[in-house]
Amino acid sequence: MASELEFERPILELRNEINELKSFMQDKGFDLSAEVNSLETKARSLEQDIYGNLTAAQKLQIARHPERPTTLDYVQSIFTDFVELFGDRLLRDDPAMIGGVARINDICVTVIGSQRGKDTKDNLRRNFGMAHPEGYRKAQRLMKQAEKFGRPVIAFVDTKGAAAGISSEERGISDAIAQTIAVMADLRVPTISLVTGEGGSGGAVAIATADRVLMMEHAWYSVIAPESAAVILWKDASQGQRAAECMRITAQDLLNFGIIDRIVSEPLGGAHKCREEAAKTLREVILEELIPLMALPAEHRIEQRYNRYRNLGKYLDGHGDGQA
């Protein structure tokens, strides 16, 4: 079973009580089915209540769950014939950014995405999904290759942000991010970006400048990670959950703001609760969005993309009225 989060404890306690009753029934031969059914109904109602009213901070915990599916998990479940490609043709390969060629319903596509690790050793190798300049230059190379061969681009976003540090700055991380945004914005092929977990800062935006931007139900997407915002606002990174509540980082908030185009539903409690169901839903949504995009002329698609980002965002004027 996936490890439980603190706010899920009442559900776990009730489920344990149900399992104890079932075990007692089996061992002693007593019929307690009425009590079990009553508790099952109560547990389902409790799950609906808790998961249907999650705070931004609780959604942040789900998005960061160690057992949440990674980009490669989704790629292996959604696509066929995936061939991973490596290297930026300048310095090295960056395992924090994966990419390659695959098929979905016999449509040949290019897949790119942030890739965090499965355990401590793998996370260190992949820098916890925070790509270096080489990762973004690899993404650019694969995008240009996709355009050359007429392949749509599907991008998976799951990163706290780009790699920080002196060596990353020395190798031009800001330029790499800016160039990736520029390349993706100008592609003539259809593009879809999916925020599947964390979507932090320019590291996420770099591969999310797409025709359609989708978010999974419990993902988050923001110009800055909540902990970093807390450092700026309160000089205290431990106030990250407080910052999350203020920043409007959830899929529901961002859909209302028009920053994303669609929310992808997750299994009750999060994608880690049932990976197969999560991947199946994501596959269906990708096809629903991709096929109409492919039917549009390239010039029309690029114009729509330009208008999307040119008109993005809202603010409050002096009278409190929302303005586009």
Q: How large, in whole angstroms, is the Cα Rg?
A: 22 Å
Q: Helix segment count? A: 14
Main pleated-sheet profile: 8 strands, mixed
Strand content: 15-25%
The quaternary organization reads as single chain
- The geometry reads as globular
Instruction: Quote the CATH topology of the largest domain.
Output: 2-enoyl-CoA Hydratase, Chain A, domain 1
The sequence of SSEs as H and E is HHHHEEEHHEHHEHEEHHHEHHEE
Question: How does CATH name the architecture of the largest domain?
Answer: Alpha-Beta Complex
How many extended strands? Answer: 10
User: Could you report the average pLDDT, rounded to the nearest whole number?
Assistant: 91
Class derived from helix and strand content: alpha/beta
Our measurement of the CA-to-CA distance between the termini, rounded to an integer number of angstroms, reads 45 Å
CATH C-level name of the largest domain: Alpha Beta
Structure notes:
This protein is α/β, with parallel strands linked by helices. Helices cover 49% and strands 16% of the residues. Strands 1, 2, 3, 4, 5, 6, 7 and 8 form an 8-stranded mixed β-sheet that branches. It has a two-stranded antiparallel sheet with strand order 9-10. The radius of gyration is 22 Å and the shape is globular.
